[in-house]
Specification:
Blueprint: E1 6-10, E2 16-21, E3 26-30, E4 36-37, E5 41-46, H1 54-63, E6 70-75, E7 80-85, E8 90-97, E9 103-106, E10 110-113, E11 117-125, E12 137-144, E13 146-153, E14 156-161, E15 166-169, E16 174-178, E17 182-188, E18 201-207, E19 210-215, H2 219-249
């Protein structure tokens, strides 16, 4: 693409996206993505992406999980580089956006893009069940003109859906898909218990044509798996603290 900078994904289990910028070139990211950079990279904050939108564009992006502000990285006085490390084991996937072709990704998927990339909310669906961690199902929309990089967690499986072909997917496993793919929320009848709450068990229906990227390690599932151990650690710490306090008082 014309405005695409040079970028390389390094590493395996915990990849790092390293973007090389010639003088005057820039990339934009959600706030707080920086890992390291060369000293000639200038950082600045903006509420707009794709050269327009301003504060209203920032509000739409924030609803989609991307944050109100974007950080712009621009090379000065020669060539420099900036790096963004993944937050969990997984993969970093580049996608090219042009000619009205856009993508939708999970709430925290977008990590970096060229200046022409515009981000906003694609869908926000609330669930009352405990397994959703209070976030519900939120998608970011990536559109405009340029290249974006998306972080997907765990192993990634891709499918190219033909016209009318449908796949039912657990919401947490939805990583990224082309905007030509139609999506809807479906409730599975007959499953409504303490775990899922009043909403029952829901799936995302993805219908082609278009490509989809599914992730094997949803962050909500990871948090749920760790919650037992974190609770146990707090209980043990509380018990130990009570024992020490009793000994000191005695």
């Amino acid at each position: 693409m014309e405005d695409c900078v040079h970028a390389e994904v390094k590493g395996g289990t915990m990849p790092v996206l390293e973007v090389t910028l010639n003088q005057g070139e820039e990339v934009i990211t959600p706030h707080g993505e920086l890992s390291w950079m060369s000293p000639n990279i200038n950082m600045s904050q903006t509420t707009s992406g794709g050269g327009s939108g301003g504060f209203l564009s920032g509000l739409k992006r924030a609803v989609g999980g991307g944050g109100l502000f974007l950080t712009k990285y621009q090379a000065q006085s020669g060539t420099g580089f900036v790096a963004f490390a993944s937050k969990v084991p997984g993969q970093i996937v580049p996608v090219d956006i042009a000619g009205g072709h856009s993508f939708l990704t999970h709430r925290h998927g977008w990590i970096c893009g060229t200046p022409g990339v515009v981000t906003s909310v694609g869908l926000q669906q609330s669930f009352r069940g405990g397994m959703w961690g209070g976030d519900g199902f939120v998608l970011q929309k990536l559109e405009g003109q340029g290249r974006a990089w998306v972080e997907l967690s765990g192993e990634v499986t891709t499918y190219t859906l033909a016209q009318g072909q449908t796949l039912l997917v657990h919401p947490g496993h939805v990583g990224l898909f082309q905007s030509t793919v139609q999506f809807s929320i479906q409730k599975v009848p007959g499953i409504a218990n303490k775990l899922f709450g009043g909403d029952g068990f829901v799936l995302v229906s993805l219908t082609g044509p278009g490509q989809i990227w599914l992730q094997s390690l949803p962050l909500a599932n990871l948090a749920h798996a760790l919650s037992h151990y974190l609770t146990a650690d707090r209980a043990e710490a509380g018990a130990a603290g009570g024992l020490v306090g009793g000994l000191l008082r005695g």
